[in-house]
Design a protein that fits this description.
heterodimer, A: mainly alpha, B: alpha+beta, D-Maltodextrin-Binding Protein, domain 2, 3-stranded antiparallel beta sheet
Chain lengths: 294, 438
């Protein structure tokens, strides 16, 4: 391919010009910090001091010789189970609302609303919700349950409470993704199915589910990486106390409470690698069919 | 080919940006000495403060106006920062962190000369101000305490009186018995941990020195093999906290406590006792006024141990003022520090202990002075090592984590008992202490 005109010679530049701003932002705010994090993870930096010493892979060795640092991933299991529930709930509502339903837009709004609320506000609302004599206890009281457990104070329950909040907050996002995908399924398919006498479940099983498979795959990847890196809600609601410590909260504590920025960066790199690995494995196990119609 | 060039350029840019940020060029002198002639001091200075409330309500502006009457050439600008620790710590990676600032707690003492201007020799400055041993590096002082406070139990006198207790307990056991009386005879929560907000639990670290009445208690942590041994400061303090929770004398659900609410609850007698700094007395009195109860019902008592028949209370400094070593207006910055400490009456206005030697005790501590409590100032000579051990061991004397765990264990929400938790902490501590300073 040989450019002939003056305009032609510069033509290769046009797409890059369009990309310049987003690329600059991406590099500045994603790749440079990640690069810096990688370099910190090889030093003993305390996060403030102008001096730092190169220590090679010492931080990684320290990390992997302390198995208790990885025990917190047990907490992630709660969130993983919760995200299964979350995807189920979102699928259910999306399937119901693709069909003509009364007050359809109102319900869409109600379901999506929690996702729009700021995470800090959500955390504070649920602090009042879960406290002794708070909203949840009052509602349960109406049904005659007098002495509920300490929703955030009981080691066996705290993670269920917190992952419940996370379901409440993020189901709306999954719901909107699913709904959008479902509505892109041609109406004719539905009509044909109806003529053939298919029931709701059959329509869902054989038309909707295959039609939105890529979106479900994406949601599962987001759910897995989300459960490994839970932070906001438990950090604000419990600060990681009482058995609700997650890997990211632990990393933040290492970096900002104990000034082990090097070790914390190494932990962050390990988490990144772990998520990439799981995503890769998942794509290998459940590959996306390449479809011409995107 | 061209594409490769572009990618190369991007990579170079990445490296260039990553390479930035380590620029240390200390402009001019590294000393900020008191100016001799107020009229000759010129310039605009920026003062970083954590007191957002005082900046918003104009109090700081009034101090600045008073200041410019003495130093007409200086203009003072304030920058109030809500998350002071977190934000200033990160800003200190650059040269731009104000002219006068409060030293963030995470800065290692050994690094002070890299960040702050010297304020004079240890001999000179320590003659005038308390607490300078904490900020002295190589016989030079780098920071002066803004004010100090003493820790004690803030309590509601009416509730304690209703429980039949009028005299301060003299031993931890007596204290526990008194709390039990409060529980039996009133409907108040005898003790409130403020577990959820966390920082009130860190105040328990301030028992160091008060229990054994030993000014060297803090330095001893640097070489202690077991800081939680029975009879030691932390051992007695943390076991008392454990027993309070273990005997159901604290709030039933610590995981949903709320600091702002707790002030009103103490003022109205729904909470009987909390371990806090003397600064909290002022806030509790305000809360009492707001709730329509008498501010005089707020009492303050020292830690329930006596050495030689006397209670002991440690005076603990709050943030230290320092001058940025990169500041171009060090004279004006130092003038502000001097004026705030010596003339402004800032400590008095906040009912805090002034760091000026020989200043009278503030109102919240009059119960202590009346009862003849002896005040001690902890030696901070080995604070740097103590902090190093604390961080290396991840014990976290200044973080709420281990006490939250202790409370969890005490209320049966986590396995173990006081001895197992404290022994584990001691193990981590002594392990790190062996490596420290090597």
């Amino acid at each position: 391919m040989k450019p002939t005109t003056r305009y032609g010679r510069l033509a290769w530049l046009t797409p890059w010009l369009y990309l310049a701003v987003p690329l600059a932002l991406l590099v500045t705010f994603t790749y440079v910090p990640v690069g810096a994090m990688l370099s910190y993870s090889l030093t003993d930096w305390d996060g403030v001091s102008p001096d730092r010493e190169f220590v090679g892979v010492d931080n990684y060795v320290a990390l992997f010789t302390r198995p208790e640092l990885f025990k917190v991933f047990v907490v992630s299991l709660y969130y993983l189970v919760a995200s299964v529930v979350q995807i189920g709930v979102a699928l259910y509502f999306a399937a119901v609302l693709t069909f003509r339903t009364r007050f359809r837009n109102l319900f869409k709004g109600i379901l999506f609303f929690p996702y729009l609320v700021n995470g800090v506000a959500v955390a504070f609302v649920f602090l009042y919700f879960f406290r002794r004599g708070g909203t949840l206890d009052t509602v349960l009281g109406l049904f005659g349950v007098a002495d509920g457990p300490f929703w955030l104070g009981d080691r066996d329950i705290v993670n269920i409470s917190l992952s419940g909040v996370s379901v409440w907050r993020f189901a709306g996002l999954n719901f909107v993704l699913f709904l959008g995908a479902m509505q892109s399924i041609p109406q004719e398919l539905h009509e044909a199915a109806e003529l053939d006498g298919a029931g709701r479940w059959q329509v869902f099983r054989h038309i909707i589910a295959p039609g939105i498979r890529p979106v479900i795959g994406l949601s599962v990847i987001l759910a897995v990486s989300g459960s490994l890196s839970v932070f906001e809600i438990p950090y604000i609601m419990t600060g990681g106390a009482g058995g609700s410590l997650t890997f990211v909260i632990q990393t933040v504590k290492l970096a900002f409470q104990f000034n082990k920025t090097g070790l914390a960066s190494a932990a962050a790199v390990v988490l990144l690698a772990l998520i990439l690995l799981i995503t890769w494995a998942q794509r290998r196990l459940v590959p996306d069919e390449r479809r011409s119609a995107a | 080919m061209r594409r490769k060039a572009l990618i190369g350029a991007l990579a170079a840019l990445t490296l260039a940006v990553a390479g930035c940020g380590g620029d240390d060029d200390p402009g001019g002198s590294t000393e900020a000495l008191s100016p001799a002639d107020p009229a000759a001091v010129q310039g605009e200075i920026t003062v970083l403060t954590n007191r957002t409330d005082l900046v918003t309500d104009g109090t700081m502006k009034r101090y600045a106006d008073e200041f410019t009457k003495v130093y007409p050439g200086v203009t003072v600008k304030f920058e109030a920062i809500t998350d002071y620790e977190g934000e200033v710590k990160i800003r200190m990676n650059t040269d731009n962190y104000g002219d006068v600032l409060l030293i963030p707690n995470t800065i290692a003492v050994g690094d002070y000369p890299k960040f702050f201007a010297g304020l004079g020799s240890a001999a000179d400055v320590s003659g005038k101000y308390l607490f300078t041993s904490k900020t002295t590096v190589d016989y030079k002082v780098y920071g002066v305490a803004s004010f100090a406070a003493s820790n004690g139990f803030v309590y509601n006198k009416d509730v304690w009186a209703r429980a039949g207790v009028t005299d301060w307990p003299t031993t931890p056991d007596e204290f526990l018995a008194d709390l039990a009386a409060v529980k039996a005879k009133t409907d108040a929560t005898p003790y409130y941990t403020n577990y959820k907000d966390g920082w009130p639990l860190t105040a328990w670290s301030n028992v160091v020195g008060s229990v054994t009445c030993d000014a060297g208690a803090n330095d001893k942590l640097a070489s202690a093999s077991d800081p939680w041994a029975s009879g030691s400061d932390l051992g007695v303090g943390d076991r008392l906290l454990y027993d309070i929770v273990d005997r159901d004398l604290a709030e039933p659900d610590p995981s949903t406590t709320n600091w702002e609410d707790s002030k009103g609850l103490l003022a109205t007698g729904k909470i009987a006792t909390m371990w806090l700094g003397s600064w909290a007395v002022t806030q509790m009195r305000d809360a009492a006024e707001k709730a329509g109860t008498s501010p005089d019902s707020i009492g303050f008592m020292p830690f329930p141990t006596q050495v030689g028949g006397k209670y002991c209370a440690v005076l603990a400094p709050d943030y230290f003022y320092a001058v940025n070593v990169h500041s171009a207006k060090k004279a004006a910055a130092r003038a502000w520090v001097d004026w705030v400490l010596d003339t402004s009456g800032f400590a008095d206005d906040n009912e805090a202990v002034s760091s000026l030697k020989g200043a009278p005790m503030p109102a919240p501590l009059t119960p202590f002075t009346d009862a003849g409590v002896s005040f001690i100032e902890l030696s901070q000579a080995k604070t740097a090592t103590v902090n190093e051990i604390d961080n290396a061991s991840e014990v976290g004397l200044t973080t709420p984590d281990y006490r939250q765990r202790l409370v969890d264990v005490a209320r049966g929400a986590a396995p173990g008992d006081a001895d197992s938790v404290l022994a584990e902490l001691a193990g981590k501590w002594s392990e790190a202490a062996k490596l420290a300073g090597s």
